[in-house]
Design goal:
The protein has about 350 residues and is α+β, with helices and mostly antiparallel strands. The protein has 14 helices and 13 strands.
Amino acid sequence: MSRRVHLPLALDTAAMMPRVQAPWVDALLDGEPVPTEPGATCDACAMLPDPEAPAAVGGTWFNPATRCCTYLPELSNFLVGGALEAGGEGAATTRARIEAREGMSPLGLYQDDLFRSRYFGSPEEFGRAELLVCPHFSGGRCTIWAHREATCATWFCKHARGAVHKAFWNRLHQAMLRMERAMAVHCAVELGVPADGLALLLPLVGPDGRARSHDIVSPGDRDDVARFWGPWTGREEDFFRACATVAEGASWDEVLAVGGAELRALIPVARMALSRTREHGLPARATLGTFQVLGLAAASVKVQGYSHLDPLDMPRALFDVLHHFDGRATVDALADASEVAGQEVPPGAIRMLLDFGVLRPA
């Protein structure tokens, strides 16, 4: 089975994770390294059309001017401070968001209603719409890479083991979001954000899921900056830098205390998802999964399984014998498929088809 990928990247957990969160993730996973995703190459974007190919047939392609950076990262206050401390272009792009004040609060820099309506209202524009391009994206690179947040740190267009790796990254994303949010609140409390500001940052949520904070803080109070920022009024950059100091000095025990029971519950979940990325055996029985044929040629077939961003190219000879995986014992299905194909169907190819959802355990 073939799959077109770029050169692999030999990265460890510390290299793949943002600077502040890296030791937290390392502790959360008990020192086990995270999987690498050699097919998701940022410097040589794997989602751009091949200019030497006659046509981009089958699959989804990104705009070279945006790549996957059509997302506004929600930076917790300590990540904002870290980007400012780092200086350079990343500090400039972060400062521009602070000065715009859209989505800014003592918790950090978050998406405003306008962006959310555009982003969630047109999901097909992801990777394409220049209107949605990230303000930290410049010259084909992320200017705040070392201080990026959970979503940007755990999202990949392609996964080496398909849905198996994607499931792990989704669970790690869930745990990182909890850590980042909890640490942001911790920083706000530790640095003296007043009760008025905390009430707006932590609104009541009604039965309909809508946030309400009018019980003790009226809508007009949002314009009272001094009540919102307290001693940090007019010194927002200093506040964010102070948050970075608090977070960077936090031990894993302190992060656990801040994250509470929810974070402690997410730790074994993330570890279980990681352990499954190490499993390579075949199920006792397998059958066809849910997939779509994107391209059919005499020698190969392009199929889309678990993700429209990560199709597979497989030999036509293998595709033509997949019907043997109909719930019968996998060892028998392999033998029958190999006999009809006139060559051995390797177990590794079947494992890959299972990972990508083309086949599934019966």
